[in-house]
User: Fold this.
Amino acid sequence: MRRNIKLLVIAGSTASGKSELAAKTARILDGEIVSADSVQVYRHFNIGSAKPQRILRDAVPHHLIDIMEPDQPFTMWDFRVAAQKAISEITSRGKLPVLVGGTGLYLKALLENLDGGAASNPHTRALLKSELEAGGLTNLYERLRGIDPVRAQEIHPNDRQRIIRALENAQSPQLSKKADHFTFSQYDAKFFVLGGPRKPLYERIDARVEEMFENGWIDETRAIVDMGYEKKCKPFHCVGYRQIMLYLEGELPKEELVPRVQRETRRYAKRQITWFAKVKGAVWLNSLSAGEDDMNNLADHICGYFK
RNA sequence: GGAGAGGUUCCCGAGUGGUCAAAGGGAACAGACUGUAAAUCUGUCGGCUUAUGCCUUCGGAGGUUCAAAUCCUCCCCUCUCCA
Assistant:
């Protein structure tokens, strides 16, 4: 099998400067960007997901942004399929695919060809959720132990989300197994992680969150609600939108909103960093020194790997 | 000036003689991660070359006791009410 599709991956935590740097390098290398971001796929969630600015998007083609409505489910599997498609289109044009994003699982699903098990089934999931409410988590966990003790071993008894998924998977008929899963990656990816010292990163996050609120994040959220989307829609549950929803419902005082979102964003960044720290062969670059010249240098540095 | 209430480990807050390095929550730090992943979950959280061990800690200084965050004395500070 071919393993020759070259890929540039630029990962990193929120506010690490991925989008900007990716656009720069993509322009130099004649590439197109494929976003690996679980929230940017959703339309209308613009400010809070820090979608790349218009200027960047006009300068370089971006894929997998604004492809879903807020009430549509989108999973790591959907990402893998969509990204593979986008990548093959890009390469067929003779361009370099530049994966950019902070969603570690998505990147992994694509790069390592995770097979993911049975397709998620809204019906069984709903059933399991009602069972959870009726019988408690422990019962579900015990059941999982009976059906798939190996998987149960890997999951913590408190992890309701994974327990439900594991049961959903275990209870599904085998036919749902994907036939086309690869045993090795078809991609030859060069993986970069943007970041830097924790302190400046956190300062940057705090400042950016504040800026987002100044840019009308609350109004944007309210507008999406007014469009008729229910709060159970997935993107409403991510960092920031979630807290804004609480505020709009009167559950969170206004003066606590911004600090709260800043804190959650910092935590999110930490989780991302923890995730990327495990990626083998990744090259870490300090992107926090901020200056325009520094960014250009970084871009040149990255491009050096593709000559 | 008088009457009450209170000062506990980074914060909030339990604890009124031993089972207390001290519940619980928060914050912080670290980690996990195969179809919700910006999600979900876990661990650590006074110090010590890591121990059924030692040392330091519950406003301060003394005292009682085999033993005190817990009892007594004095002092300092905070809050509420009355003047």
In short: The first helix of chain A runs from residue 18 to 29.
